[in-house]
Amino acid sequence: MDLTRNDILYILDKAEGMKTFCKEREKEKKERAHRTILQPLKNATLYSIFDEPSTRTEGSFEGAMILLGGEVKNKKLDSSSQAKGESLKETLKVLSSFPSTDIIILRHPSESAIKEVVETSFVPVINAGNGRDEHPTQALGDIFALRTRKGKLDGLEVAIAGDLKNGRTVHSLVYALANFDIKIKLISQEGLGLPPDVEQNIRKINPKIKIEKANSLDAATTSDAVYLLRLQKERLQTDQERSSYEASYPKITKEFLAKAKKDVILMSPGPKHEELPEWTDNLPNSAYWEGIQSCFYIRMALLNLILIKQEDYPS
Ligand code: NCD
After folding, report:
1. Pocket of ligand 1 from Cβ distances under 6 Å
2. Would strands 183-187 and 210-214 be described as parallel, antiparallel, or unpaired?
3. The pTM is what?
4. Which residue's CA is the nearest one to ligand 1's atom 7?
5. pLDDT tens for residues 253-305?
6. Which of 107, 223, 245, 295 could form a disulfide with 50 if both were Cys (CB 3.0 to 4.6 A apart)?
């Protein structure tokens, strides 16, 4: 993710507008008055290509497009000419050459896939997760949820705990957070820390960034937000590796919450596992349901921003 602070704030403000749009729509639905609902993306088509499992990202990109009046098409790569040996680059080039395609959303297990296809696609391609590397739209949704709850971004302390190595959302999240005056606490076991190149990149974005590292959630008792990542079991090699990490994986406990800030918020890109037990779901601290909606508004904002010329883009 290479967005500047101004880009990020601009997108968050547009997402705020989308939140209002959705509220208006709800009101109109209740009043059975659909006639006035705007459809800014009427006649635009999104191609949704998910070559890894997804609930939130796939569903919300598609839902966002539909709410804005657009159309959605899905393509499963195993039923495309990839099965006949065609490269991903070629498949995307074909799909993007249809006069009916306006934008492509791609999730792919390979880290390099997105860069390859962006260069040759005839339409914009949004990264919905590339292997272990990044998931930028999730990170924008996460900081939108954080700003909504805390009313600000500068001055916060954010702890990020769990599998910082294999979880891609965290990589985009730290790049986004580095644009603000935020203290980041990285909490992970030995072997699951943030990849060194990601840390170097954060320091390039913000040489003055405050980063602390710890291996226990106790380090997060001063934090304003704790972002928990599941163990990416499917990206680990052996069962032995999986169970050894599981044994001492950071997770929210009642003891932790008793020591933490009263208004600490708990965040997760989902899916949640043992790190956020079900009993946390209804706590006022849990912000992960709003996080899902925040991502939806961000995706609406991005589709709108990319497909409709904006006169007010910050210079
Ligand atoms: C994440 C993903 O796929 O990267 N989920 C999501 O898109 N919201 C996180 C994960 O799989 O752990």
Report:
1. 54, 56-57, 129, 135, 138, 167-169, 230, 269-271
2. parallel
3. 0.92
4. 57
5. 999 999 999 999 999 998 998 999 999 999 999 999 999 999 999 999 999 99
6. 107
